[in-house]
């Protein structure tokens, strides 16, 4: 049997309480403690805000054949300080092209990576995406009221997609949420992270026990995409999550580092997402590549987003379109109480007020986003995104079209004279508008 590059076990739990002017609950990196060594030698003094603070520990443990006790985090609450550019230096040395903002743009293998999505597995560094930690006793009720999903029905270890909208249900962004024991972690688009944090802080009232933290720079995020993702997980001794529902996540210890792994990869309910400290990123990345995954840069990822049909901020998710026109039904609860945008959403459904919807398009040639879409010479919509495919003859687009103007399989004209055929791209086809008898989570 193949020996995995990872040494993995499920995490046990503990809490650390620091005594200072304020009492705070945090988590610290996994450590392996020999039985004959006393705990004080391993106190995480490097992350204490004041050296005189005392640390108190309660922990659970299990035995290993190497006679060690494993102490681990219950939540991805706090990572160690990042090692500057360590992971980026690693990928640069292998030929990757990295932007000034630290985004891996390409490994100069874009076509190979896109092929792997269909026939194998690709791994993508999405560490530039925003990650927000929502903690405090009122966190569940707070996010329940501020976004479209029903958080009150979720337990620790579960997750969902939710949408942040304006009071008139115009779409700001889709967030993927992991409900952990002590916090909720949100993954959002890089363009919206700051605005969402500002918006959430604005709605925290004096008595609310809620804290919002931007943990983007304290963490790294990889995703696996492709039909062989499950096999990679099995080979790395991470198969506990294979076959579990979308959003399910668990905490693991991988090569002595805490890693949270969840089902789904932002574009799809298949694949996996891996959240870790930046110091763990190089070894985790290398282990995934060892299992045959093809590295993918952001250029190919952005192509894949359009081909899969996931709407993005600034393109399909703007103040011009509402959440129902974007077709984000799987992220909306219709039977929970009042929340921001709920009144508008209910009215649109009750009075059948959805006037346009988002479609995928197969195009005959390259087209500019913003181009007018027409049927029989009449304007019926607008192209919002475009990308080429692997083959020169492949052209894909996303666009909003008036509800009664065309349906799946119909032909439209984009711009001056580009033919387009309406199709259901995978992300859009998986969104299920609820029937009158359907209950929405």
Automatic annotation (TrEMBL):
At the top level, the lineage of the source is: Eukaryota
Key word Methyltransferase present in the record? yes
- From the record, what ranges are coiled-coil? none
One MF annotation (Gene Ontology) recorded for this entry: methyltransferase activity
All residue ranges annotated as the GCVT N-terminal domain in the record: 112-336
Q: Which Pfam families match?
A: GCV_T (PF01571)
User: What GO cellular-component annotations does this UniProt entry give?
Assistant: mitochondrion
- Enumerate the UniProt keywords alphabetically: Methyltransferase, Transferase, Transit peptide
Q: Which GO terms describe its biological process?
A: methylation
* The keyword Ion transport belongs to this UniProt entry's keyword annotation: no
Q: What PANTHER family is this protein classified in?
A: AMINOMETHYLTRANSFERASE (PTHR43757), GLYCINE CLEAVAGE T-PROTEIN FAMILY (PTHR43757:SF14)
NCBIfam families with a match to the protein in the record: ygfZ_signature
Record-given protein name: Putative aminomethyltransferase
Q: Which organism is it from?
A: Lupinus albus
